[in-house]
Amino acid sequence: MNSPEWRDRPAQTYFGPASWQARLLGVAALVVLRTSIAVLTVVGLVMNRIWPAGMQRARLDLIDRPMRYIRALPGTEVTPVRLPDCPAEWVVAPAARDSDRVIVYFHGSALVTLGLNSHRRFVSKLSAATGAKVFNVGYRLAPLAGIEEAVADGLCAYRHVLDAGFTADRIVLAGDSAGGLMAANTALTARDAGLPAPAGQVLMSALTSSDMEIKRQAASTHRDPFFPFMAFMFLYRVYATVNGTRELPVMPPEAELRGLGPFLLQVGNNEMLRNDTFVLADKLTAAGVPNWVQVWDRGLHMFQLTFDVNPDARRAIGEIADFVDYATAVAPRDAGSVPVTGEIA
């Protein structure tokens, strides 16, 4: 797609029907992942009742260590970087080595787990597809760190990329799940700190709201094949609010959104977080920030990471590449009018 055509796109696009690979992945997730997460949630609830202090010292990010065996795509250069409070790395595909564009990427985590290893292969694909360098950020996680500290790491990463000589109009912030929250809040924090806002944001299956009711409503309409609702409640109560003792920071839909570059929001039609996407899109539109919502039939939570076996994921990454071309080709605050509401197949 020629990137200027984004201006003429409807605000909401439906991609479907799902491929057989996406359908099979959905069944596998329902049988294996959802069941496993439900069991672990029950165990966590019991442990939190017996030993809440111990739960607040849990290192759920340790799951990322064995994932170091998940390799980046062949030919990708991976260069570790140590930021003041967290690790990061440059992930650069062969086609991106001379690029002046950067995607600052925040991995999904539910704010408590995963890391650089779990997402290295995906961000290497993102670099290859977009022709941009990717700065992969291993921000601090709960329960040892709060959301504010994680966002501080995001801002530090953005400053690092700016200090490396890249200009804001050639930088896109991106993330999946809780990483989508990180991308949005980092853009807001950068703007409020007087830094130039990034060219755009890409949010995939993003957690953007602390409103549990909209998640419950989504879960009651379509069963999420990945997450049971009680898992979200557990993470919210035990880790995000530290058993009700910590207030959450302002979430993106509650913030002043003016002055940000355009957003691409991708979500599956049966995800529990789909209402987070719709609420944020409505707030962005009201603030005059261009945004496009893509709803993917039977798209799993973070389905883009399954690109090796899922043609729908590869198509979604292609859409991201087109959007990055668009966002970095226009000035963020001169990106055209907010698209009209509509839907195409």
Automatic annotation (TrEMBL):
Molecular-function GO term, any one: hydrolase activity
Signal sequence range: none
Transmembrane residue ranges: 20-47
Keyword 4Fe-4S: no
Record keywords, A-Z: Hydrolase, Membrane, Transmembrane, Transmembrane helix
Family under the similarity heading: Belongs to the 'GDXG' lipolytic enzyme family.
This protein's name: Alpha/beta hydrolase
Protein's organism: [Mycobacterium] crassicus
